[in-house]
Amino acid sequence: xxxxxxxxxxxxxxxxxxxxxxxxxxxxxxxxxxxxxxxxxxxxxxxxxxxxxxxxxxxxxxxxxxxxxxxxxxxxxxxxxxxxxxxxxxxxxxxxxxxxxxxxxxxxxxxxxxxxxxxxxxxxxxxxxxxxxxxxxxxxxxxxxxxxxxxxxxxxxxxxxxxxxxxxxxxxxxxxxxxxxxxxxxxxxxxxxxxxxxxxxxxxxxxxxxxxxxxxxxxxxxxxxxxxxxxxxxxxxx
Length: 238
Prior knowledge:
The protein has 238 residues and is an alpha+beta fold.
């Protein structure tokens, strides 16, 4: 009990005046103006430390070496493109020429084969024509046979015409060494020199190609008659 009384007598918390003395001893003088200035300095410090903005006009320029390299690459690509385009045009032109050439060669080969085949058939046509001109049927049976093979001849001639074959009509025409083959020359005053007066074997053409030359007789100038005796020789003889 005595201890409690003694403790309470010396406890500062039980004495208000003692409390105030303690607060005054521990109090710290705070200058609010200094605090405000310190805060302002703290705010302005980061702003001053930040780099200043560079005007657009003062921005660093792009590296000229990089630009030059890109320009060289673009120029190289353009050159490659032009070369490929030119090469493609040349290939197309070469192919078109090849197509035309092969088409022409194919047509010429077909004409050559067709012509060679027709040449082998021409003697058959000649035999039909000889038979028609030489055989004179006398009876009705012979006439029937004659008409039958003449119908075959007519069919053969029409087939040759469809294939483009044409017969030459040399008689009465001027002699042409490209179309005619002269096997005889006959002096005559009835025809001008160089005129075909007779056709022995008919010639044929396939378009512009001569399959067979016509064998013909050509007119020649007439020979001079026997010379009359000289008048002086005649007087001397008399």
